[in-house]
Amino acid sequence: MASENTRDRLVEHATGLFHREGYHAVGVDRVAADLGISKKTLYKQFRSKGDLLREVLERCHDMAVRDFPDEADDATPRERLLGIFDAQRVHGEAPGFSGCFFVNIGTEFRDPSHPAVRQARSHKDQLRGYVRRQADRAGASEPEVLAEQLVVLHTGAADYTLLTGHYPDSVRAAVEALLTAHGID
């Protein structure tokens, strides 16, 4: 049990550090020291810093997917699509918002073939898939185009929020306009 607790604490702490300061800026010495454990203990849990990052990305993905509106609820696809952006606004307005972790990882590594970048892209692909399913259910004129537009808007809204310190009010209006343009009322 102590081993699982140590692993969870490592992932939770590394998530915050990697997200706020960047993966490359944070060494395993710092992660271990902050938690009051040895590097040996850290390496018993994770073979490498890259393995720790892989688990951090998995958990971040799981947390982000939990924010997707439930596809089995009574909401309309339009309400679900707007809900994605409502959830993003809540995160963007929270103290310490550090942008989209998945985009941050892509920016840090820059190599599309790097395992961490592939993992980050997979998250965006799953978001696009969710949006595409909602667009299909609503009878959108071009579901794939709409899915791409909304994921780009979602990514841009996070970047804008990071750079300006506030979530843009215009995002909801832009989402509504795109949904209407694609026949989703």
UniProtKB/TrEMBL annotation:
Transmembrane segments: none annotated. SUPFAM superfamilies: Homeodomain-like, Tetracyclin repressor-like, C-terminal domain. Residues 27-46 bind DNA. Residues 4-64 form the HTH tetR-type domain. Keywords: DNA-binding, Transcription, Transcription regulation. This is TetR/AcrR family transcriptional regulator. It comes from Streptomyces gibsoniae. The lineage of its organism: Bacteria, Bacillati, Actinomycetota, Actinomycetes, Kitasatosporales.
